[in-house]
Design a protein that fits this description.
Distance between the termini: 15 Å
Shape: globular
CATH topology of the largest domain: Growth Hormone, Chain: A
Radius of gyration: 22 Å
Largest sheet: none
Number of strands: 0
Number of helices: 19
Order of helices and strands: HHHHHHHHHHHHHHHHHHH
Strand content: under 5%
Number of domains: 3
CATH architecture of the largest domain: Up-down Bundle
CATH superfamily of the largest domain: MFS general substrate transporter like domains
Helix content: over 70%
Structural class: mainly alpha
Length: 480
């Protein structure tokens, strides 16, 4: 976390009232997008009962949203440059509201999953296009002030999502998790028409459609292959073909990027050592990190009998400890460097994840709360260190492209995290039995597996140069 926190009241110092309102529109859009990435976690068992599904097979609701965001994010900036920021931002809000309505109306799990794809397509464009509109509208001397204000709601959304989702589900119904987006989205769309300029980039070149297609196919095929056996019921041969197809598409992109004059993501990025290590570390370490917000509320409700609200409240120590440890992360990195902090902390995070295999009705509540708080603290340090090590050496033409690629990989890893956790749960549950009281051992085994995956990813960070000591203070804090 930076040593100086951006002021929350930044818009009040801006002279033009229309610009202040535009900032609020962008900030609220970012808040909705990040909120919906976590708000459904505590509502999954209620959704399952309503739709006649097993709560252990509801991961597609989360996967569809995050995977769609990973696929759509790379094209959002080009669309805004080509058609105008206001046009694309309005389109994003429209898709998000339409997806929310369809989610609330969904009569079956496949319908709900498809609706989350629509919602994710809109959500994927809200942040990058909104941020681009700020950069195109505000003078350079006001960039930091404006972007800091826009970023604050985006950081709050994922933090309050599980608790808010639990409260809404228990007080009303899970449908209102999506319906609350509708009036906010309509108001945002109307405000966008009046207050957001339709900034375009003259003379924009052609979009790298071939490169985009290769990457999109690789991401979707990989996610489907991981969820194929357990969630989708694919045969082994189908899963193998999907894995081969994913690797082939990724290889095809590499060859394409070498020949293309303007590839979607230049291969020069991978010549930057810290970026390459940070990108791979984000991909694999987040498979464990991203699984926990899905697994913890599900365990508490399905196996321990917690209500949605109580399960959401149990996530508060994770949030509070995570926020409190931000400054600790900065000091640790400044004192010990990225390599030592990331190697040690990644291993510790994995051990803490595996320790949730001890959770049971016999464990005192106080111990579980401490366990959750400690996980929140080390997990927050992990996010801060991983994000900044990937971005710290970028500059010039690589900064924008590298940041976009990192964001895409983060969203992909969230999808793979829930996909992997759901597949592990289904596999262990099939081996243990299908009775309700036997679900806890399946959760225990899954916690151990995701913990081992995370600890093993510490090897990636060992590849960082131990001689580098000129670390900079972390600047990127969004725990995407």
């Amino acid at each position: 976390m930076p040593s100086v926190t951006p002021p929350v009241d930044a818009p009040s110092t801006l002279p033009d009232p229309k610009l202040r309102i535009m900032l609020w529109v962008v900030a609220v859009g970012f808040f909705m997008q990040t909120l919906d990435s976590t708000i459904v976690n505590t509502a999954l068992p209620s959704m399952a009962r309503s739709l006649g599904e097993s709560p252990l097979r509801m991961q597609s609701v989360i996967i569809a949203y995050s995977l769609t965001m990973a696929v759509v994010i790379p094209i959002s900036g080009w669309l805004a440059d080509r058609f105008g920021t206001r046009t694309i931002f309005q389109t994003a809000i429209g898709l998000f509201v339409l997806g929310s309505l369809l989610c609330a109306w969904a009569p079956t799990l496949p319908f709900l999953t498809a609706a989350r794809v629509v919602q994710g397509a809109g959500g994927a464009m809200l942040l990058p296009v909104g941020r681009l509109s700020v950069l195109r509208t505000f003078p350079r001397e006001q960039y930091l002030q404006a972007l800091s204000f826009v970023a604050i709601p985006g950081m709050v959304g994922p933090l309050i999502g599980p608790t808010l989702g639990g409260w809404i589900t228990q007080t009303f119904s899970w449908h209102w998790i999506f319906l609350i987006n509708v009036p906010v989205g309509i108001a945002g769309a109307l405000a966008t028409i009046r207050y957001m300029p339709n900034a375009r980039l003259p003379g924009i070149g052609r979009f790298d459609l071939a490169g985009y297609a290769f990457l999109a196919i690789a991401m979707v095929a990989l996610s489907f292959s991981l969820d194929g056996l357990a969630g989708l019921g694919f045969q082994h041969a189908t899963v193998l073909l999907l894995l081969i197809g994913s690797m082939a598409a990724l290889t095809a992109y590499v060859f394409h990027a070498r020949r293309s004059a303007a590839p979607l993501f230049t291969l020069q990025l991978f010549g930057i050592h810290s970026f390459s290590v940070g990108l791979l570390g984000n991909l694999f370490a987040r498979i464990g990190n991203g699984a926990m917000p899905f697994l913890i509320p599900l365990t508490l409700q399905v196996s321990l009998g917690y209500s949605p609200l109580d399960a959401g409240m149990m996530m508060v120590p994770v949030t509070v400890a995570g926020m409190a440890s931000k400054r600790v992360a900065t000091r640790l990195i400044e004192r010990y460097g990225y390599r030592r902090v990331l190697v040690t902390n990644t291993f510790v995070v994995g051990l803490v994840m595996a320790s949730f295999a001890l959770i049971s009705p016999k464990v005192p509540l106080a111990i579980t709360l401490v366990q959750l708080a400690f996980f929140g603290a080390v997990n927050s340090i992990q996010f801060t260190a991983m994000n900044t090590v990937a971005l710290k050496d970028l500059g010039g033409v690589t900064a924008s492209s590298g940041n976009s690629l990192l964001t895409m990989v983060q969203m992909l890893s969230m999808s793979l995290a829930v996909t992997s956790a759901g597949a592990l749960l289904a596999t262990f549950q099939a081996g243990i039995g299908s009775h309700h009281f036997e679900t806890l051992p399946a959760f225990h085994a899954t916690f151990i597996c995701v913990g081992l995956i995370t600890s093993a990813s510490a090897w990636i960070f060992m590849q960082l140069d131990p001689e580098v000591v000129d670390v900079v203070k972390p600047e990127r804090e969004e725990e995407v």
